[in-house]
Amino acid sequence: MNHSPWVSVEEATSSLGVSEKTLQHWREVGYLKPGTHWRSSPVSNSIPWQPEVIYHLRWCREEMDYWRAQDAPIEDIAA
């Protein structure tokens, strides 16, 4: 069993309750920071020349909680 805090896009979308497009949008606007909330995995199971993005679930959840506490409509800030 893998105990890494880093999970695939599929696991992240399921656990966080948002779409892949929303996660990508949050990366692009800076809500999710590279190296902290997400990073490129060195191995991709899909396209060999395109690294797969993986997410740190706990830190992503903490970021979502932060924006909710600021009264930001985080669920509405989606692509």
Task: Explain the overall architecture.
By secondary structure, the protein is an alpha+beta fold. The chain has a single domain (6-69), classed as Putative excisionased domain DUF1233 (Multidrug-efflux Transporter Regulator, Chain: A, Domain 2), CATH 1.10.1660. Helix content is 39%, strand content 14%. The chain has helices spanning 9-16, 20-29, 57-69; strands at residues 6-7, 38-41, 52-56. A three-stranded antiparallel sheet has the order 1-3-2. The model has no long low-confidence stretch (mean pLDDT 83).
Compile the SSE list and pairings.
Layout: E1 6-7, H1 9-16, H2 20-29, E2 38-41, E3 52-56, H3 57-69
Antiparallel strand pairs: 1-3, 2-3
Name its key features.
single chain, 79 residues, alpha+beta, Multidrug-efflux Transporter Regulator, Chain: A, Domain 2, 39% helix, 14% strand
